[in-house]
Amino acid sequence: MNISIFVPEQAAIEAISPPYRLFTSANQFLSAAGLTPKFNVSFVGLSPSVKAQDGEYEVKMHYTIDEVKKTDLVIIPALYGDLTLAIEKNKRAIPWIASMYRHGAEIASLCLGAFLLAETGLANGKQCSTHWAYCDMFRASYPQVEMVDGAIISDSDGLYSSGGANSIWNLLLYLLEKYTNRGFAIQASKFFAIDIDRFDQSMFTIFNGQKAHKDPEILKTQEIIESRYAEKLTVDVLADYIAVNRRSFERRFKNATNNTVVEYLQRVRVEAAKRHFESGRLNVNEVMYEVGYADTKAFRDVFKRYVGLSPLEYRKKFAMAG
User: Fold this and answer.
1) Is pLDDT above 60 for 147?
2) Cβ neighbour number for residue 69 with a 10 Å cutoff
3) Is pLDDT larger for residue 309 or for residue 100?
4) Left (φ > 0), alpha (ψ -120 to 50) or beta: where does 272 sit?
5) Mean of the pLDDT values across residues 245-272?
6) Residue 182, pLDDT score
7) Please, what is the end-to-end C-alpha distance for the chain in angstroms?
8) pTM value?
9) Residue partners of 270: CB distance under 8 A and separation at least 6
């Protein structure tokens, strides 16, 4: 199986070596099991050597894109820095990536490599994931692609993408399991000390409400929610603050923020609760009251929905010692 790691200009160096190391290590695992090594892994670029990040690193290619006419899997590592500039620098690769897909290759983007995948148009109408901090930017740039907030892995018609940072390892293990079997994927996860079955970025997400829109009344409502989240705020109360009827208010709020009013309030409260837990000074019930909840089950259910952990689990994991 031919795996072509396309190393883009202005790539994040941390995303270049993991796919190479994983699949070459998998060959060693296969050999140790008495099986034939399966993966022919190579770096492919626009030129014989590619500069990564801000020119701090230089990576030698095995092939240029002009030399690769067919492959089985193209992996696109994360872009780095100014994404608009990075995409512009790699424009010549976009038709090549699309051509590989049309000729039977699967495509996997790692973290912010999703922006380069989206440029090909291949992901239009399909699901995609990327680093949680760039989901709004991605959604605004590529409205035809269904961005899955918080996902570690997306898999749609031979197109794969991962969430942020170390999530790239989860996608690579997912692909290794697909191309070999569960046993080899587990072996690799132990070798690289990666949690094989992590599918969600939510415990690491920091919620920053979408404010790039141009609706002043909705911006005012967001400020009210973020400063007074512990109060008994309802949709009707918030609509009255800006003198807009409820139906119009809910529609405008959803269009502007990609959240319903209730979801936005819940996410602001959960973010505040996370900060309390991280400081380690308050117990779960105290935090619950601090952020505007009086019902333990309701607080626990909402917190787990957005974070993926219970309040107690999150506190144990992230509270500052002492």
Assistant:
1) yes
2) 10
3) 100
4) alpha
5) 93
6) 82
7) 52
8) 0.67
9) 207, 291, 302, 303, 306, 307
Nearest 10 degrees: CA dihedral of 283, 287, 288, 291?
Answer: 180
Q: CA dist 12 to 50, 52, 256, Å?
A: 12, 6, 31
| CATH classification for the domain delimited by 216-318, as one of 3.40.710.10, 1.10.10.60, 3.20.20.140, 1.10.246.90 | 1.10.10.60
252, 190 contact by CB (below 8 A): no
Structural tokens at position 314: 């999150």
pLDDT in tens, 187-218: 888 888 877 655 555 555 667 778 878 899 99
Task: Sort strands 146-147 and 153-156 into parallel, antiparallel or unpaired.
Answer: unpaired
What per-residue confidence (pLDDT) applies to 212?
Answer: 79
What the block records as the tokens of 57 is 């690193």
**Is the distance from CB of 6 to CB of 16 less than 8 angstroms?**
no
Cβ–Cβ under 8 Å, residues 63 and 44: yes
Nearest residue to 45 via CA among 5, 79, 77 = 5
Q: Where are the domains of the chain?
A: 2-202, 216-318
What architecture is domain 2-202? 3-Layer(aba) Sandwich (3.40)
